[in-house]
Each structure stands twice: as C-alpha cells, then as structure tokens.
Amino acid sequence: DPGQTIYLDENVTLRLKDNTVIRTDRVQWSQDGGTMRTDAPVFVDHEAVKVKGIGAAGRPSDSFIQLNRKIEMTANDGSLLTCEGPMKIYYNENKMVLYRNVKAVDKRGTLLAKRMDVFFEDEKKEVKQIIATGDVSILRGSDTTHSKRAIYTVATGSIRLEGDPDITVHEGSDALTTFGVQK
Questions:
Q1: Quick one: CA torsion of 162, 165, 171, 174, rounded to 10 degrees?
Q2: Which parts of 31-63 are beta strand (E)?
Q3: At residue 173, what are phi and psi to the nearest 5 degrees?
Q4: How big is the CA angle at 72 (ends 69 and 162), to the nearest 5 degrees?
Q5: CA 83 remoteness from chain centre
Q6: Looking only at Cα atoms, what is the longest distance across the chain?
Q7: Pick from 119, 83, 121: which is nearest to 104 by CA?
Q8: pLDDT digit string (tens) for 103-153?
Q9: Is the pLDDT of residue 32 over 90?
Q10: How many Å apart are CA 118 and CA 58, to the nearest integer?
C-alpha cells in the first residue's frame, strides 16, 4: 500500500546500485513520498570512503541522502573530513555539501570553513573541486591563510582565495620558495 509507513529495526542494510552500503539500526520508510529517515547512528561504506554520522534522511528515487549531525568521513588516502552537519549527498549531481564547522585534514594541512561544497568526477567519483565558504582558514605547518572563500582544484593543485585574503608565511617555510621569496 503506497500510503503506508514501514518500520525496519535492527541491523538495517541498504545497498545502492553503485556498491554503496548504508547501515543503521532503524529506518522509517514512508512509501508515499519515498522518504527514509532514522535518528540512529548511520554508517556509509563506499569504495573510496567511509562515513559515519547521527541521523539521516534520504530519497532513494532521487539519489539523495543527508546525514544530520556529527559527521566524520575517512578517505582511503588518509584524509579526514568532519562537520557538525548536515552533510547532503546528491549522487546524480556528483556533489556533496557539508555544513557547520567543516574541517578537512590531509597530509598537506588543514582546511576550516563554515560550508564546503565537494564536486566529483562522473566516472570514478573522485574529488575534482572543493569550494569552501565562510571564515575559511588553511593551516600548513606554521603558515596560515584566511579568506571568505577558497576554491581548490585537484587537477592543478591550485587554491584560489577570494574575499579579503590574508596570508601569513613564516621564515624557512616551503611556501616562501613557492612565492619566489629568497633570503
């Protein structure tokens, strides 16, 4: 009956067509809107990343899922991305948006922002661009940058700072050579 709500309890596993597996303890599935919800911890496993958070909502027919709060995403390359939430994933648009105190840490440094939009390539679903907005800070060793917005393009490795960029580079930093500064 399309008007009914179905409740799934204990060890619920959803398998998506791209080999993504979502696990939680309970799901409320509203058939009339095709919406699934849970307030329980949620674990998402994909080929390149593992995500965990508290609570979720999704519309499988629209290829959309949102993790509500306390999100932590670990990539196979050792990168760690956290936020207070929500984190919205738009599979058909190859896009993920993270909100509230977003922090991305990898071997190159730390990126902090209020919001981060992550865009993926169509085929391999690898990150191609990240746009961070709102009180953006980039920390690399003792060097720091602050701006209103930062655009990171993976293919070129470039970061473009917009909106009152402020850069602090300390003596002896690798960044000094990058900027052509010598002693």
A1: -10
A2: 35-45, 49-59
A3: -75, 145
A4: 90
A5: 8
A6: 76
A7: 83
A8: 999 888 899 999 999 998 877 777 889 999 999 999 988 889 999 999 988
A9: no
A10: 19
70 Cβ contact list (under 8 Å, min separation 6) = 53, 54, 84, 85
Structure tokens at 180: 């052509």
State how far the Cα of 145 lies from the Cα of 132, in Å rounded to an integer.
13
Contact by Cβ (8 Å): 115, 99: yes
* 17, two tokens: 């067509």
CA 135/CA 139 separation, integer angstroms: 13
CB-CB contact of 53 with 68 (8 Å): yes
Q: Could you give the CA distance from residue 177 to residue 183 in angstroms, rounded to a whole number?
A: 10
Per this entry, what is the length of the chain?
Answer: 183
